[in-house]
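Example record

One chain of 343 residues, shown exactly as stored in the release files.
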Amino acid sequence: MNIEPQNVLDYVGENTIFLVWNFKKDLEVGAVFQRICALVINLNNSGATRFPDSGATCVLGVGHDAWLRLGLPKPLPKELVNFESIVGAKHTAVATRGDLHFHIRGADRSICYDMAAALAQFLEPVAVSVEEVHGFRYKDGRSILGFVDGTENPQGEKRAFFGLIGDDDPAYKGGSYLFVQKYIHDLKAFKALPVGEQEKVFGRSKEDDIEMSDEEKPSNSHSALANVGDDLKIVRDNQPFGNMSTNEMGTYFIAYASTFSTVKKMLDNMFIGSPVGNYDRLLDFSTPKTGTLFFVPSATLLKSIADGAPAPEAASGAPAPEVAAGPRASSDDGSLSIGSLKK
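Predicted structure tokens for this chain:
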């Protein structure tokens, strides 16, 4: 079976909308989720057909508790859990609830808006929007702090290797772990530093984005702690955002990875320190307000759900018998009744 991933390997767009929705209590949600899966597929197909050069895409991620509530395949993806706060001596990576995450990208802002509006139309009766961040490309791919963001991103074929699940979890091949954090920056404090000190915070030159040598790079610089080895990479799609009236200037950190353990190692280094206490100095100027882990199913799995067909058997990795496509009623508890996939 040829597994088609969602568009997690696409490169950062000019405009982005990040959305987090949480299901309301005691409501039937399975039928709406089935419709959302179909809508995400439709939005991507329509974007590619109508605006082929716009990079218009929508990626759907599902949180741990929502996965269980919807009755999605069991066993779950190996590393899909509720993210727990990472508490360092000075800074904390907070944990926040998230049932569904949507990552919308496009060269044209209006395309992103239309996609978000279409999703909201179906979700509003059964869910609440708890986060909406409008990101944009700043200059030559820089964060609001003025430094280039994502320099260590894998390129070419390596993006799939580090961004998508392979044979280690065959039932979820083509899927991806998605971790997000909304950071708010203290721009006033950071800009008060001389450029040389700012560069020591990042471990890179500000103007031309050249990494410092190991001899001159501070051990508590961001590049020293956030990079955990050439064999442990993630696909970052970070975007800056800004609101002048509320003085909220920040970065929406978004990581796609074949294993969440890679992201967790980075976070431990940053917040707890390596060694313990040697935390990422960037955190003195950047505070995370959210922190949530999602799982991005393959587009193949989304299509199975949208069509009302059984999803691939999670226990063995073998596909379930084919059934006729068409709407399928959800169970009394609001799930899609595909948890065991043996009915």
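Notes: The chain has nine helices and twelve strands.
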